[in-house]
Design brief:
The complex is a heterodimer of chains A (about 950) and B (about 325). Chain A has about 950 residues and is an alpha+beta fold. Chain A has four domains: about 1-200, Beta-grasp domain (Ubiquitin-like (UB roll), Roll); about 225-320 and about 380-470, Aldehyde Oxidoreductase, domain 3; about 550-630 and about 805-970, Aldehyde Oxidoreductase, domain 4; about 645-785, 2-Layer Sandwich (Aldehyde Oxidoreductase, domain 4). Chain A has 27 helices and 33 strands. In chain A, helix 13 links the parallel strand 15 (about 395-400) and strand 16 (about 420-425). Chain A is globular. With about 325 residues, chain B is α+β, with helices and mostly antiparallel strands. Among the domains of chain B are: about 1-60, 2-Layer Sandwich (Uridine Diphospho-n-acetylenolpyruvylglucosamine Reductase, domain 2), CATH 3.30.43.10; about 220-325, 2-Layer Sandwich (Enolase-like, domain 1). Helix content of chain B is about 30%, strand content about 20%. Chain B contains eleven helices and twelve strands. Chain B has a five-stranded antiparallel β-sheet, with no helix packed on it. In chain B, helix 10 (about 285-295) runs antiparallel to helix 11 (about 310-325). Classes of the chains: A alpha+beta (about 950), B alpha+beta (about 325).
C-alpha cells in the first residue's frame, strides 16, 4: 500500500469506474473528489464533520468525505451524487426531491441524497421498516439544511421510500448509475412538469436538478488554469493599532506570488454610501478578532497558509469593548476615530402623535424589557470569490454574493477601476439569507491579487471566517411601553432599543431605522415613538439577516400584546383582530399599505391549529401561542441615490420556441430564476423548461439591485412581466394574421397560439415566434421597474426608509411542550399563514415559508452568535481572565453554533394567503422573510400558555425556562 | 478550507504489523481508526503527528462476537453504527447499543469505532478551536499556553471526556483488552482513564486498544444510558450518564448494588458506587436520592460549551430518569 509523504497513488472505484489517481498524502477524500477528479457535486460546508454537506458513500455506507483520508479509500468503492442518476434518468430520490421542491439552494442536497440513498438501500427489502417522518428525520440528522426546514426533504424521502418498496427499484451501491432503471413513477415525475407553466401552478424550480446530479457549479467549483489560492491573515486582537507589518519572508516563500496589506487597498467602502467605514484589509487598526490584515496568493492553500505564518505584524493592543454598555461608557476608546459621536454608529429618534398623553390615559400600560440575542445566517456554502484579469484587461470576479451589482460598484471604487473594466458573475449560491449581501474582504483580495499576479486567484472562507464575516442579526436590548384601552385597543407605543452593531456599519444605518419604522403595521398604532441607538463594539459586524431589523422589535411587541391579552382577559387572536390595520390603510409613520390579508392569516392559523377547541384546554405543560407580523416587498429606494430603475429584464425569443430571459437578479436558492421563468412562460405560452434564465452576470444582464429586502419578486417580476407582455403582444399580432382573428383573441398557452373563440384553430408557438420575427425583426424586449415615488412614505427625515411598494402579512401559531423538570421546550408544531399577494409558484412559496419558520425557530430556541465578554464582567460567578478572551466568539463552527437538525425541527405547516396587491406582478408580494418574524414571539407566547412563565430574553434556553419556573413557584 | 497537516498514512493489515509500526515510529505516530475525532483535531491543531497508523484494514479489528459466558467480545474497530444496530447487543446490552446510537450523526457513527469513542480526545471550549482562536487566547494548558481558562490558576488540564460508550461500558463492567510490546493486558474500562486532560487514556506507548469485553449482566441487573445535548443529532453530549442497578433477581427485587457512571465532567468519568443503597427498593424516592447524589458528587465545569450550573442540575434529572426507567 502506498503512503509516503508527499504524493500517494490511489486506486479506487468511483461510481463504478476503476480510477487511479495521485493526490497529496494529507488530502481528504473530499479534496480528491472535488479538486482532482472534478466531482464537484460533493460540497464542503464546515471543514470538519459538523454539517454533512460532504456526505458520500464508501462501500455503501454514507460517510463524511471531509473526515476520510483520500488514501484510506484505496481499493474501496466510492459513490457520489454524480453516480446517483441523471436528469434524464433520475434516481427515485432525485425525482422525488424535484417533484416536492425539496432543494432550494441545492448545496446540502447532494449530501442529503447520499444519506437518504444509503438508508433506502437498507430498507428497500427490509421486513417492516419505519418510514415515519420521525424516522426519516433521524436518517438525515447529520445533514444540515438551512433553506427548507427539512419539511419537503422528509416528504420527498418518504415518497421515494414508499415508491422503492412498492416497485422494488434496484439502487445497488456503487453501481447506481448503471443499475438503476428509472421506474415508471420516476419517469412520470419528470413528465409531471407541466408542459405549459401558468402562474400559480404547482411546479418546482427550473434548475433544481442541476445540484442534484452534481452539475451546478458553485463558486468554489470553478477552477481556472494557473489558478492561485488566496488566504487572509486575521487579527488575534479584538482592538489594536497596527504598528507595522513585515511581509518580506512571506513574499520570499517559494510558491507565493503575491502578498498585499491594507496599504494596497486603502480605499474605504461600505454598502451604505454614507457610512463607508471598512477597508478590504485593515489600514491602521484592527477592530475585532478576525479582522483582515494581509492576504497572500500562492500555488496552493497550504503554501498560502505557510506564508501567513511568516507575516510579522506588530500590534499595540487597545481596550476591547464587547458590549454596547461598554462602548457607551468608554467614548474615549474610539473604535472608529473619525466617528463624530463616540462609539455611536447611528441614532434614530422619531415620534408620531402624542405618546405621553396616550400612555397616561391608558387603562393598561404594559412595560417590558426584552433582549434579542445575536444569531447568524449559517448558509452552508462558505463565501468564495475568484478573480481573473483576461487578455483584454477585463477583471472578472465570480463571487458567492447576493448583491452582484453593489459588488461591481464597490470593486470599481476600491480598485480604482472604471466599472466598464469589471465583470461580476454570481454563480449558483449555496444559501445567503442576508449574509452575502454586501462586499467582503475576499472579493477585493481576489481581484487585487489577480491584477497583481496576472493569474486567477480564488479565496474560500473557512467556516470560522464565515462567522467572522457575520453581518448577522443585531443583538437588541429593548424597553417597550404599550398603552391599551380596557377593550384591548392599542393607544400608544414607546420603544427604546440599543443595537449591538459590531465593528463596522454594514447596513446599520438602515437597521437602526428599521428597528422602529417597520413596527407600523399590521396594527393601528394611534401614537408611536421610538429611540434606537446602534453602538460599535469590537466584534464581527452585524447586518441584515432574514427579516432585517424588524424581527427583534416584532418579538418584543408581540409579547407585549400577549401580556395585554392575558391581563385584559381577551383572546390573543381576538386582540390582534381588534387592532388590525385595514387594507389600503396608512400607518402612523405614514407608510401606505396596499393589500393586506392579515385578518385571513389570523383566521387560517386559528383554524389550522384548532385554536378555539384547544387553547386553554391542553394538558399541563402544553400550550399554544400566536403572533402576527408584516414585512416589506423591497424598499422604495435604492441604497445609493439614483433615479435609475431598481430592476431591468431583457427577453429574447428564438425561432425554436425557446425564450431567454436576461436579468441581474440573484438566485440564492429562493427561486428567483424560476419566478422569472414562470412569469415569462405564463405570458408567452411556453413550458417552464423552454425558458432559460441567464442571471447575475454584469456583462449579459441589465442591472437588478440584488437579493435583499425581499424585493426581487415584486421588482424584477414587474420588469419581467412588462418585457414579456411587450413580446406577447407582438407574437399575438403576428399569429392573429395567420389565425385570421384580432390579436386580442389570440391566447398563448401550452406551446400554442390559439384562437380564443375557436380552440381548434391554433399554431405551434415556435411558428408564432417565427411569424413575429418575420413581421418585426429580431425579437427582444426590455422591462424595467421603478418604485412609486409619490405618496407612499412619510414626508419627514427618514420617512422613506422602510417604505415599500407593498407589504406582506403573516400570522403564526406555535404549539409547545415544556418539560417543567428540565425547562426544556419542545416545539411540536408551527402553523404559519402568510399573505404573499399571489403565489406565482406555490411550491416555492411554501418552501420560503417553511424555511423562514425553521430559521426563526432555530434562533428562538438554540442558536447564539455571541462573543466572550471583556473580562470586566463576571460569568457564572467567576471573573474571567482577560484580556485575551475579550471578543472571542463563543461559537464559530457548525458544531458549537447549533443550527437545528431535522430531528429537532417541529412540524411546519405553511398556509398561503393571497391578497393581491395592485403593485405586485399578478398581485405578488414577498414570501422570503416575512414568515420568519412572528414565529419567535409565537413560541415565547406558547411557553407562557403552557407553563405560565414569560421568557423575555432570547434564546428560550432550558436554563432560563427552569429559572423562571422556579421563580414562579412558591418557596 | 481547513487543511490537514502534512502526514504519512500507514495502513497495516495485521495486528503484528500495526504494533511493529507503532514501535518503529514511536511518539511521532498516532493511531487512527474511524478518524472522526482525530481528523478535526488535526485540522485545527495543535497536534501535528508525522505518521498516522490506520487500523481500518487490520484483520480482526472489527466485529461483535458473543463470548462463552454469554457476554460480548467486541473488536475495538467495530463501527458505532454496527454496534447500535447489532440485534444481540440491542437485546442483551441495550445500554451499550443506546450509547452507540446517540453519538454525533449517522455518518459519524458509520465511520467511528468503539475503540475510537473510548479513546476520544478530551474536549474543551478553549482547545477545540482554530489556531487563531488559541493564539488570541494565548493558548492553554493543552495547547501552547500555561494558563487554564476553565479553572483559573489550575495546574492540570480539565478538558472533558465526551465519550458516550465509556459510561455505558463502565456501567456494564466492560474490560479493555490492550495489546502492546509486552503482550496483552486487560484493564477494566473504569480504570482506563486518568485525571490529566492531556493524557487521559492509560495506554502505554506502543499499545493498541484491541478489544472490549462486556460480561453478561448478573440476573437482576440492568443498565441504561442517557445522553443530553441541545440537538438531537451532531452534538457531543453535554450530559452523558449510565446507570446500572443490581437487584435481587426475584422476591423483593431490592437493590443490591450498582453504579452511576458520569462522563463530560473532566478527563475521567465519575463513578458512584451504589452498594450503600443495598436493600432499598427501586422507586421514585431512590431515583431522587441518586439524582441528588450525582448532583452532589459530580462537579460540572465550564469546559464544554454550555452553562455548567444547568448541566449539573440536568445530570441529576437524567440520573433520576435513568433509575426510573429501570424501576
Amino acid at each position: 500500500m502506498s503512503g509516503g509523504r508527499g504524493v500517494a497513488l490511489i486506486d479506487l472505484s468511483i461510481n463504478g469506474e476503476a480510477t487511479s489517481v495521485a493526490a497529496p498524502s494529507h488530502w481528504t477524500l473530499l479534496e480528491l473528489l472535488r479538486y482532482k477528479l472534478g466531482l464537484t457535486g460533493t460540497h464542503q460546508g464546515c471543514d470538519k464533520g459538523d454539517c454533512g454537506t460532504c456526505t458520500v458513500r464508501v462501500e455503501g455506507r454514507a460517510v463524511l468525505s471531509c473526515l476520510t483520508l483520500a488514501q484510506s479509500a484505496q481499493g474501496r468503492a466510492v459513490s457520489t451524487v454524480e453516480g446517483l442518476g441523471s436528469g434524464a434518468r433520475p434516481h427515485p430520490l432525485q425525482a422525488a426531491f424535484d417533484r416536492c421542491g425539496a432543494a432550494q439552494c441545492g448545496f446540502c442536497t447532494p449530501g442529503m441524497l447520499m444519506s437518504a440513498a444509503a438508508w433506502l438501500d437498507k430498507i428497500a427489502s427490509a421486513a417492516d421498516p419505519d418510514l415515519s417522518d420521525e424516522a426519516i428525520a433521524h436518517v438525515i440528522g447529520g445533514n444540515l439544511c438551512r433553506c427548507t426546514g427539512y419539511t419537503k426533504i422528509v416528504q420527498a424521502i418518504g415518497e421515494a421510500a414508499r415508491e422503492v418498496r412498492a416497485g422494488g427499484v434496484a439502487t445497488a451501491v456503487g453501481a447506481a448509475a448503471t443499475a438503476t432503471a428509472p421506474t415508471a413513477a420516476s419517469e412520470g415525475a419528470v413528465s409531471l412538469r407541466p408542459t405549459s407553466a401558468r402562474v400559480g401552478g404547482r411546479h418546482g424550480k427550473i434548475d433544481a436538478m442541476a445540484p442534484m446530479v452534481g452539475e451546478a457549479r458553485y463558486t468554489d467549483d470553478l477552477v481556472l488554469p494557473r489558478m492561485l489560492h488566496g488566504k487572509i491573515l486575521r487579527s488575534p486582537h479584538a482592538h489594536a493599532r497596527i504598528v507595522s507589518i513585515d511581509t518580506a519572508a512571506a513574499a520570499a516563500l517559494p510558491g507565493v506570488h503575491g502578498v498585499i496589506t491594507g496599504a494596497d487597498l486603502p480605499k474605504t467602502y461600505g454598502i451604505i454610501p454614507w457610512t463607508q467605514d471598512e477597508s478590504a484589509l485593515c489600514v491602521d487598526k484592527v477592530r475585532y478578532i478576525g479582522d483582515a490584515v494581509a492576504a497572500v496568493a500562492a500555488e496552493s492553500e497550504d503554501i498560502a497558509l505557510q506564508a501567513l505564518r511568516l507575516i510579522r505584524v506588530a500590534y499595540e493592543p487597545l481596550p476591547a469593548l464587547t458590549t454596547p454598555a461598554e462602548s457607551m461608557a468608554n467614548p474615549d476608546v474610539r473604535i472608529h476615530e473619525r466617528n463624530k459621536d463616540g462609539n455611536v454608529s447611528k441614532r434614530v429618534e422619531l415620534a408620531f402623535g402624542d405618546v405621553d398623553a396616550a400612555l397616561a390615559g391608558a387603562a393598561l400600560l404594559v412595560e417590558g424589557d426584552y433582549r434579542f440575542h445575536g444569531s447568524t445566517h449559517g448558509a452552508l456554502e462558505p463565501h468564495c470569490a475568484l478573480g481573473h484579469v483576461d487578455a483584454g484587461g477585463i477583471l472578472t470576479v465570480w463571487s458567492a454574493t447576493q448583491v452582484p451589482h453593489y459588488l461591481h460598484r464597490a470593486l470599481a471604487r476600491v480598485l480604482g477601476l472604471s466599472p466598464r473594466q469589471i465583470r461580476v458573475i454570481q454563480p449558483p449560491v449555496g444559501g445567503a439569507f442576508g449574509g452575502k449581501s454586501e462586499p467582503f474582504d475576499l472579493e477585493f483580495c481576489a481581484a487585487k491579487l489577480a491584477m497583481l499576479t496576472g493569474r486567477p486567484v480564488k479565496f474560500l472562507y473557512t467556516r470560522e471566517e464565515v462567522f467572522f464575516a457575520h453581518r448577522g442579526r443585531h443583538p437588541f436590548d429593548m424597553q417597550y411601553r404599550t398603552g391599551f384601552s380596557a377593550d384591548g385597543q392599542i393607544l400608544g407605543v414607546d420603544a427604546r432599543s440599543v443595537l449591538d452593531g459590531g465593528a463596522y456599519s454594514s447596513f446599520g444605518l438602515v437597521t437602526t431605522y428599521y428597528s422602529g419604522q417597520l413596527l407600523g403595521a399590521p396594527y393601528i398604532l394611534p401614537s408611536y415613538r421610538f429611540d434606537s441607538v446602534r453602538m460599535y463594539t469590537n466584534k464581527p459586524a452585524c447586518g441584515p439577516k432574514r427579516g432585517h431589523g424588524s424581527v427583534q422589535p416584532r418579538f418584543a411587541f408581540e409579547v407585549q400584546l400577549d401580556k395585554a391579552a392575558a391581563t385584559l382577559g381577551i383572546d390573543p387572536i381576538a386582540l390582534r383582530r381588534r387592532n388590525a390595520l385595514p387594507p389600503g390603510g396608512r400607518t402612523v409613520n405614514e407608510f401606505h399599505i396596499g393589500s393586506s390579508g392579515f385578518l385571513q392569516c389570523l383566521d387560517e392559523v386559528e383554524r389550522a391549529s384548532e385554536w378555539r377547541s384547544r387553547k386553554g384546554k391542553l394538558p399541563r405543560g402544553r400550550g399554544l401561542g400566536v403572533a402576527g407580523s408584516t414585512y416589506i416587498s423591497g424598499t422604495n429606494y435604492c441604497i445609493y441615490p439614483t433615479e435609475l430603475p431598481q430592476s431591468g429584464v431583457q427577453i429574447c425569443l428564438d425561432r425554436s420556441g425557446r425564450v431567454r430571459v436576461f436579468a441581474g437578479t440573484s438566485d440564492i436558492g429562493q427561486g428567483s430564476s424560476t419566478m422569472l421563468a414562470t412569469i415569462t412562460a405564463d405570458e408567452l405560452g411556453v413550458a417552464l423548461e423552454d425558458v432559460r434564465v441567464l442571471a447575475a452576470d454584469s456583462d449579459l444582464c441589465p442591472v437588478d439591485l440584488g437579493a435583499y429586502s425581499s424585493r426581487i419578486t415584486l421588482m424584477a417580476g414587474n420588469a419581467c412581466l412588462q418585457a414579456a407582455r411587450d413580446l406577447g403582444a407582438k407574437v399575438r399580432e403576428a399569429a392573429a394574421v395567420q389565425l385570421e382573428c384580432a390579436p386580442r383573441d389570440v391566447v398563448l398557452a401550452d406551446r400554442l397560439a390559439t384562437r380564443i373563440d375557436d380552440p381548434a384553430r391554433s399554431m405551434p408557438i415556435a411558428e408564432a415566434f417565427i411569424a413575429a420575427e418575420v413581421r418585426f425583426g429580431t425579437l427582444g424586449s426590455t422591462g424595467s421597474y421603478q418604485s412609486p415615488r409619490e405618496a407612499v412614505h412619510g414626508d419627514y427625515r427618514g420617512g422613506t426608509i422602510g417604505a415599500s411598494p407593498a407589504y406582506s402579512f403573516t400570522a403564526h401559531v406555535a404549539e409547545v411542550e415544556v418539560d417543567e423538570e428540565t425547562g426544556e421546550v419542545r416545539v411540536i408544531a408551527i402553523w404559519c399563514a402568510h399573505d404573499c399577494g399571489k403565489a406565482l409558484s406555490p411550491v416555492l412559496v411554501e418552501g420560503q415559508i417553511e424555511g423562514s419558520v425553521y430559521m426563526g425557530f432555530g434562533e428562538a430556541v438554540m442558536e447564539e452568535h455571541e462573543a466572550m465578554p471583556s473580562g470586566l464582567r463576571a460569568d457564572g460567578g467567576r471573573r474571567l481572565p482577560g484580556p485575551g478572551m475579550a471578543g472571542l466568539l463563543q461559537a464559530s463552527s457548525l458544531l458549537d453554533y447549533r443550527m437545528p437538525t431535522a430531528p429537532d425541527t417541529p412540524r411546519i405547516e405553511a398556509i398561503i394567503v393571497e391578497a393581491p396587491d395592485a403593485r405586485g406582478p399578478h398581485g405578488a408580494k414577498e414570501a422570503g422573510e416575512g414568515p420568519l418574524h412572528s414565529a419567535i414571539p409565537a413560541i415565547a407566547n406558547a411557553i407562557y400558555d403552557a407553563v405560565g412563565v414569560r421568557i423575555d430574553d432570547l434564546p428560550l434556553t432550558p436554563q432560563k425556562v427552569l429559572a423562571a419556573l422556579r421563580a414562579r413557584r412558591p418557596a | 478550507m481547513l487543511r490537514l497537516p502534512p502526514l504519512q498514512l500507514l495502513q497495516p493489515t495485521s495486528l503484528d504489523e500495526a504494533l511493529g509500526l507503532l514501535a518503529l515510529h514511536g511518539a511521532s505516530a498516532r493511531l487512527i481508526a474511524g478518524g472522526t475525532d482525530l481528523l478535526p483535531n488535526l485540522k485545527l491543531g495543535p497536534a501535528r503527528p508525522e505518521v498516522l497508523i490506520s487500523l481500518q484494514r487490520v484483520a480482526g479489528f472489527e466485529g461483535v462476537r458473543v463470548s462463552a459466558d454469554g457476554g460480548f467480545d467486541i473488536g475495538a474497530g467495530t463501527r458505532l453504527q454496527d454496534l447500535a444496530e447489532d440485534a444481540e447487543v440491542r437485546a442483551r446490552a441495550p445500554a451499550l447499543a443506546a450509547a452507540a446510537s446517540v453519538v454525533a450523526s449517522p455518518q459519524i457513527r458509520a465511520m467511528a469505532t468503539l475503540g475510537g469513542n473510548l479513546c476520544v480526545d478530551t474536549r474543551c471550549r478553549y482547545i477545540n478551536q482554530s489556531e487563531l482562536f488559541r493564539d488570541a487566547l494565548g493558548g492553554c494548558l493543552k495547547s501552547h499556553g500555561s494558563e487554564c481558562h476553565v479553572v483559573p490558576g489550575g495546574q492540570g488540564c480539565v478538558a472533558a471526556l465526551s465519550s458516550d460508550t465509556a459510561p455505558a461500558l463502565i456501567a456494564l463492567q466492560g474490560v479493555a483488552v490492550i495489546v502492546g510490546p509486552a503482550g496483552e493486558r486487560r484493564v477494566a474500562i473504569v480504570e482506563l482513564y486518568d485525571t490529566d486532560g492531556l493524557a487521559h487514556v492509560r495506554l502505554q506507548p506502543g499499545e493498541i486498544l484491541w478489544r472490549v469485553e462486556v460480561p453478561m449482566l448478573a440476573p437482576g441487573s440492568a443498565a441504561v444510558h442517557r445522553k443530553w445535548a441541545i440537538r438531537k443529532a451532531i452534538d457531543f453530549s453535554l450530559v452523558s450518564v449510565a446507570v446500572r442497578l443490581d437487584r435481587e433477581p426475584a422476591g423483593t427485587r431490592a437493590l443490591v448494588g450498582g453504579v452511576v457512571a458520569v462522563a463530560v465532567l473532566g478527563p475521567r468519568p465519575r463513578v458512584l458506587d451504589l452498594r450503600t443503597y443495598a436493600g432499598r427498593s427501586v422507586d421514585e424516592a431512590l431515583a431522587r436520592e441518586l439524582g441528588q447524589l450525582a448532583f452532589d458528587r459530580c462537579k460540572t465545569l465550564p469546559n464544554v460549551p454550555f452553562d455548567p450550573v444547568y448541566r449539573r442540575e440536568r445530570l441529576a434529572v437524567e440520573v433520576r430518569r435513568a433509575v426510573m426507567s429501570l424501576a
